[in-house]
Amino acid sequence: MKKKKLLRSAAMLAVISMTLSTFTYTADHAVAKEKPGQAAQIEDLKSQPIYSFEEAIRETVYVESTLDSDENGKPDRIAVDIIRPKETEEGLKVPVIMDASPYYESLGRGNESEVKDRDKDGINEKFPLFYDNYFVPRGYAVALPEMVGTNQSDGCPTTGGYEEIESIRVVIDWMNGSAKAWDEDNQEVKADWTTGNVGMIGKSYDGTLANGVAATGVEGLKTIVPIGAISSWYNYYRYAGLTYYNNGPGGLASRVVTSSRKDACKPVFDRLNAEADDPSGDYNDFWDERNYVKDAKNVKASVFAVHGLNDYNVKMNHLADWWTALSKEDVPRKLWLTQTGHVDPFDFRRAEWVDTLHRWFDYWLMDIENGIMDEPAVDIERGADVWETQSSWPDKDAANVKIRLGPGENEHTNGTLTTGPVQGNVKQSFTDNPQQTEQQMVSNETVVKSDRLAFLSEPLKEDVRFSGIPEISLRAKVDKEDSNLTVLIVDYGTDTRINHESRGEGIKTLDTESCWGESISTDDACYKDTEKTTHTASYEVVTRGWFDPQNWKTIELDDSLKEGKSYKFEWNALPEDYVFKEGHRIGVIIAGSDRRRAIPSTTGATFEVDLGQSFISLPVVNGKKAIGF
To answer: Contact 482/560 with Cβ under 8 angstroms?
Structure first.
C-alpha cells in the first residue's frame, strides 16, 4: 500500500492543530494554548467530544455546478445541509464527513428510514444517522449533500450518470475553494471553516456516489467508506448479458429517487430506459459511463469498504471488481465482509463499527497516528457475530482448483464432483423450465430431474474454505437460438446459519435503544438495537451465477445460437468467502432460467452438456490438497 505522508513529528502525534497556535502538552492530551477550542483534544489516540452539539451551526448552502441536467437554461445548484462546531466562526478549521444521498426526501436513511424534514414544514430539523451527533462534538463538520434532481437540489437524476457524480464532486470543490455557493438569501458563502479534508461515507446509493466521486480523483477527498455500494451500474441491472428486470434506471430515477420532478424530468427518464437497452442486456456506452471500476486509476482517497457476502441487492461482484481494481492501484484500503445481506454495519456490529470508523476518520482526516493501518486489513464474519481477521482478500493462499462434472453410477443417479479426469464421452441433458423455482433446483439433490443437472461431492473429510470468484466452463449444445443459464454452488449439510433471506436480511430490530453521541430535541443520537437472526437448514445456496448464452463471445454483443453447434460457455459466479464444514457435501446445480433473479427465457431450450469438457474452477484456500476429492 502507499505509505501516507507523515505530517507531523513524533512529538506532535497526539495533537491536531487547526491553527498556527502554540501548544502545551500533558501526559495524555493537548489543546491549543492561545485560542482554546481551536484544536482537537486527543486522548488515547482519539479525538474527544469537546464541542457543543446543541450550539453547533446548522446551515444550508447551494453549490453552483456546471450542469443543466433539466435543460432549463440555468446551472443546477446542489443543496447541502451542514452542521459544524460554533468555534468555526472564530477561526477553527475542521475536516468534513460527507454523506451524499438521493434519499433524504422520501426513502430516508438507516434502519429507521430517517429523513431531514420529518414534519414536512420545509425546515430540515434532522441530520439523519448518528454521524453528526457523534463526530461534530469531536471537531468535525458533517455535510449532507442532496444529489442532483432530489429534494432541494436542481436538475434531474440520471441513475449513476456523469451528472450525479459531478453534482457531488463540485461540493468538494467548493470546500476546497474551487467552486461557488450561495445561502438562502442568495448571498455568496465560502467554506472558510474547513481544512478541505473530506471523507465520504454511505450505504447503497450513498456509497455508490462515494465510489464514483473517488474515481474522478477530486482534490480534497481523503477517504471513502462505501457500504454495500455499486461499482458498475451494469452489474446492478445485468448479469453476464441477462437483464434482471425492465426499465431499471428510469424506474429508479422516477419512482424512488425523485417525487417532485416527474414531469419536468420525463424526457431524461425516457432516455435512460432507451439507452439502457433492456432487450439485449448488452454492455454499451450507457453502462460504460456508469462503470467506476475502469477509472480506479484516478482514485487518490483511501477506501474502507463494507459488504454483505449475501447481499443480493448490491451483489458481491460490485465489491470484488472495485476491490481488485483498487488493489492493482495500491490504494490504501480496509474491508469488512459480513454474512448478512444489504445491511449497515451500525446494525450488525454496532460498537465495533463506531469505534473503528472513529479511528479511521481520525487517521485520514485529522492525521492522528493511531495505528489503524497497521492492523489486519480484512475482517470476515464466519458465523453469527463470529469474526476473524485476514491480511488480504481474496485469501492469498487461495488457488483455483478445477472441479470436474462426473456422471453418476447410472442414469438414475445424479452426477459427482471430482478433481480427477472424467473418463469417456459422457453427455447429460436438461431442459430450461422458466417456472422452476430456486428451491426446486436445489432440493432433492439425489433425485434426477429433467430441468436441472446436479453434481455432488463425497462428504468432506475436513473443512474446505474457498475465497474469491468461482469460474464456470460449460461445453454444451443448445437446440434453440436463445436461452438462459444458471449455476448454483450449494453446501449440503445441516447447520445453523445467519438467516440472510429473512425480511431483515440477517438482523432483527429490537425495542431497546442505544445512544451514540449527543442529542437535542429535534435530533437525537439514539437508535433501536438489533441482533442477528439465524435458522437451521439442511442446505445453503453459497453463491449463484447467471449467463446469457448469446453473449458467449462478449457481453457487448449478442450472437444467436446455432442448433447442433458445440459452444464453450464461460462465466463467473458471484464472489464469496465460505467454509464447507467437515462431513458436508459440495453441490453444483446447473439449470436454465432463474425467474426470481432475471427475466426468464421462453424458448424452452434443451442443453446437452459434455461432462468431460465442463468444470467449475473454485478458489480453494491451500489449493487441491485441501479439497480431498
So the answer is: yes
What type of residue sits at position 93?
K
Give the CATH number, domain containing residue 581. Answer: 2.60.120.260
Q: How many domains does the chain have?
A: 2
Nearest to 473 by CA among 564, 558, 554, 573: 573
Mean pLDDT of the chain: 92
**Domain extent for 360:** 10-390
Q: Is 311 a catalytic residue?
A: yes
CB atoms within 10 A of CB 324: 16
Q: How far apart, in whole angstroms, are the C-alpha atoms of residue 61 and residue 81?
A: 7
Phi and psi at residue 289, in whole multiples of 5°? -60, -30
CA distance 380 to 305: 12
Alpha carbons 276 and 281: distance in angstroms, whole number: 8
Contact (Cβ atoms closer than 8 angstroms) between residue 585 and residue 455:
no
- Average pLDDT of span 45-71: 96
342 an active-site residue?
Answer: yes
Q: Mind listing the pLDDT tens digit for each residue in 4-20?
A: 433 333 333 333 333 33
Q: Report the predicted TM-score, pTM, of the whole model to 2 decimal places.
A: 0.93
The reply to whether 335 and 436 lie within a common domain is: no
Task: Look at residue 344 and tell me whether its pLDDT is greater than 70.
Answer: yes
Nearest alpha-carbon partner for 266 in 277, 255, 276: 255
Asked whether residue 235 falls in the same domain as residue 379, the answer is yes
Strand, coil or helix: what is 12?
A: helix
3-state secondary structure of 170: helix
| Alpha helices (H) in 73-228, listed in sequence order | 131-135, 162-175, 205-214
**Number of other CB atoms surrounding residue 418 within 10 Å:** 17
> Which of 282, 311, 379, 432 is labelled catalytic?
311
Mean per-residue pLDDT, 595-600: 96
Q: Per the residue annotation, which of 69, 153, 204, 467 is the catalytic one?
A: 204
Do 50 and 115 lie in a common domain?
Answer: yes
Domain identity same for 424 and 510: yes
Please compute the mean of the pLDDT values over residues 410-417 and round it to a whole number.
Answer: 90
**Known catalytic membership, residue 318:** no
- Domain termination site, one of 362, 390, 418: 390
